[in-house]
Amino acid sequence: MYELLLVLIRHPDRILEKEFLLQSIWPDSFVEEGNISFNIRQLRKALGDDAQTPSYIETIPRRGYRFLATVDEFVTEERLTGESVPRRDVKARLDGVKPLSVLAVSAAAVLFAGLTFAIWFFSSGGVKAAPILLAPFALERLSTDGQVHLAAISRDGKMVVYSRRNAGKQSLWLMQPGASENSQIVPLSDFLYYGLAISPDGKFVYYSRGQGSSQRQPDIYRESIFGGVPQRVVSEAQGWISLSPDGEKISFVRCPYTDQEYCSLWIADSIDGGNERKLVSRPRPIRIADNQISPDGKTIAFAVGESRTYSNDFGLSEVDIDSAAERDLTSEKFFNIEHLAWLPDAQGLLLTARREPDKNFRIWHVSAATGVASSLTDDSQTYSALSLNNDASVLVTSQVAPDFHLNLYRSSDPTSGPRRLADALTVNFAPNGELVFSSRRTGNQEIWSIKSDGSGERQLTNNPSDDVAPIVSPDNDFIFFASNRTGKIQIWKINRDGSNQTQVTFQQGGNPLVVSRDGQWLYYKSALEKKFMRVSIPDGHEEMVFDRSSQDSVLAPSGERVALSERINGENLLNVVSLPDGAVVKTYRYADSTATPVCLGWSHDDKYLAYILTDQSGLEQTLWFQPLDGQRPRKVVDLHEEVFEGSGLALSPDDESFAVVQGMWSHDAVLIRGLK
């Protein structure tokens, strides 16, 4: 803010373009225009200025800002001769402004000068600075097998607690950085771990865990760091937890997933979960993710936003624990924010976040003083969990990498094993039996095509954005896919050879599902509300088809029916409804009532449904066919690898084969001693 005020004063009565301000104040940083607006608001607040009738700073719409007061600079003899003589400071002649406002300018200058000194003091090694921000990048691997999902370091930096996965089960372990000895805290079980935190005194570990396929949210437990009997502290919470500096409070997130309260932030006593209190809530589809109690224990920083539209709509906010008053910590936005960690004395936060069109979650620093966000890592790695020791000299984080591939099975003999065709994340069949899929093999998600025998592989798009979820028109002439190249996800069309890329939707946007058999309509699921829409291919008219939202739902190739996986009275059911009236045509029970459906699909003749179930461990998955004539579901094959949820299943037009995207996310813990 101090630098911004100086730039404005040095150019009085001149319109300063936003680009000029960005280059003048942050020449070597990636800073969005919103950061200028944020700092202008802070300046006006300090000066007592009014944006509507400004005395000091005028906003020039769509251009920039202008400093209204006339400024006269008196050059001191000290500057000319180097001798120490009484000096006269910069004097502002403010025509038509109350004399009291001049005092405000002086007070603001003193305030900003103090702020500048404080920033210099901390960054130059002052008391409780964050050494990790000043030391050269140095990384030590704590695991190499891809099975360590979570890790947390104690405040003294002497212990690391981590969760390890083995054959679909997980256990909790304790290690000392630099030592080879590891001891088990919690033995291997079907429970999956979603969050970890070590108490400030290093005596207890807090963790959230639950059944992998259970519809119930995880519970939070407290246990001696050396093992023992776990004590349940909080029921029905998500994986993001934080402990206060004195260890007496715990903050956590609950997600009822209702329209009015999609997710909420809570605080409670850390010993037994008593005195629960809701601080913040957000309506559908806004998520609240990681949260961290500040070093003084008075506020909680939390990540909040949505990622459905593949745009940068995730932000960082703070709530006062006593008053529940909220404020934004930065004006900058991200595609998603996964984890947070406060720096000492609340100088700022570290976060793992991804900003479109970047494909990696990087470690970022957000300054508490200015709100500026700066990326600290520029390698090809994606980082997830974050945990700092007390003086921020050591950071434990996790590196995550996808390893998913497209497998093709023969329907007549699925147990013979699949043919592995390519690296992929989403897949569909073309009418001629070829496959179209999205893949990250180039570093970006692009659209590709390949023949069922593995030949004829071809890249069809090449764009820094995410191109996903391709489908092919019934005449085999066009491919429709979802892309966020405009800043939000929309549907695009290309010829089968990748030429003539054209935007199709301009309003809702989402993932393409089916092209009507006459080629006139494209049906799609809206990204934000998950409702069924359609767009006229000839004229671009968009309209809603079915307003019943569901995450797990698929449209029949005929466009006449929708299959929805819904939980009713505690049971997972498969409902088939007709369009456009939404009447339930048939209800089916899944083959295994204890399992969770992860993928749905229709046969091309609309005669049966396909679905994949995952068991309670979250690892064992099976493919089933459900005939619509009322016959019992038929088990097709055991899938011995995990399936990429939501868009990893496709059935061939001739019913001779089916494609599944399978694989896993690799997670490894690393220790970092410098981020410079």
Question: How do the helices and strands line up, and which of them pair or pack?
Answer:
Layout: H1 2-10, E1 16-17, H2 18-25, H3 34-47, E2 57-60, E3 64-67, E4 70-72, H4 77-81, E5 91-93, H5 99-123, H6 131-134, E6 138-141, E7 148-153, E8 160-166, E9 169-175, E10 182-189, E11 191-198, E12 204-211, E13 219-224, E14 231-234, E15 241-243, E16 249-254, E17 263-269, E18 277-282, E19 287-293, E20 299-305, E21 314-320, E22 326-328, E23 336-342, E24 348-354, E25 362-367, E26 373-375, E27 382-388, E28 395-410, E29 419-423, E30 426-429, E31 435-439, E32 446-450, E33 458-459, E34 467-472, E35 478-483, E36 490-495, E37 502-503, E38 510-515, E39 521-526, E40 532-536, E41 542-546, E42 553-555, E43 561-568, E44 571-578, E45 584-589, E46 596-602, E47 608-614, E48 621-627, E49 634-639, E50 649-651, E51 657-674
Antiparallel strand pairs: 1-3, 2-3, 4-5, 6-51, 7-8, 8-9, 9-10, 11-12, 12-13, 13-14, 15-16, 16-17, 17-18, 19-20, 20-21, 21-22, 23-24, 24-25, 25-26, 27-28, 28-29, 28-51, 30-31, 31-32, 32-33, 34-35, 35-36, 36-37, 38-39, 39-40, 40-41, 42-43, 43-44, 44-45, 46-47, 47-48, 48-49, 50-51
